[in-house]
């Protein structure tokens, strides 16, 4: 994570993970998502093809999180569902590309604007 001097007072924080920077990318992406979203078990594509970046703006008790990344698999199974995180509500907007989600055996494909 890189904290940034933010003259707007919104408390901007940044994270970046790139699989070309060496082994451990999946663990670093898991840590980033746990800090900014929720805990996930992560599986990255093989090779050097993954990049991910997150920006978080703190607005009092509200956090606005902008996440941009190449495709990966993230799962919230029993081991991470009850990770002790505080209760919170998340709203996710898919601005570009697609996201496939499963819940209770049901699959949903989200696209831009969905």
Provide a descriptive summary of the structure in words.
- By secondary structure, this protein is mainly β.
- It has helices spanning 25-36, 78-81, and strands at residues 2-3, 13-18, 41-43, 51-59, 62-69, 73-75, 98-103, 106-111.
- Strands 1-2-4-5 form a 4-stranded antiparallel β-sheet, with helices on one face. The protein has a two-stranded antiparallel ribbon with strand order 3-6.
- β4 (51-59) and β5 form a beta hairpin.
- The longest helix is centred in the first third of the chain and has 12 residues, at 25-36.
- The protein starts with a strand and ends with a strand.
- Sheet with the most strands: spatial strand order: 1-2-4-5
**Main β sheet profile:** 4 strands, antiparallel
Count of folded domains? 1
Run of helices and strands: EEHEEEEHEE
- Could you tell me the strand content as a percent range? 35-45%
Helix-strand makeup class: mainly beta
Intertermini distance: 30 Å
Unreliable residue stretches: none
Please tell me how large the radius of gyration is: 15 Å
Instruction: Give the helix tally.
Output: 2
């Amino acid at each position: 994570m890189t904290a940034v001097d933010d003259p707007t007072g919104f408390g901007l924080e940044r994270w970046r993970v790139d699989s070309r920077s060496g082994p451990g990318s999946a663990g670093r992406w898991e840590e980033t998502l746990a800090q900014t979203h929720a805990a996930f078990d992560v599986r990255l594509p093989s090779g050097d093809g993954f990049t991910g970046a997150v920006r978080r703006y703190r607005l009092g008790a509200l956090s606005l999180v902008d996440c941009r990344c190449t495709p990966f698999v993230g799962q919230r199974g029993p081991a991470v569902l009850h990770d002790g995180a505080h209760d919170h509500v998340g709203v996710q907007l898919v601005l570009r590309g697609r996201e496939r989600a499963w819940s209770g055996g049901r699959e949903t494909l989200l696209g831009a604007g969905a």
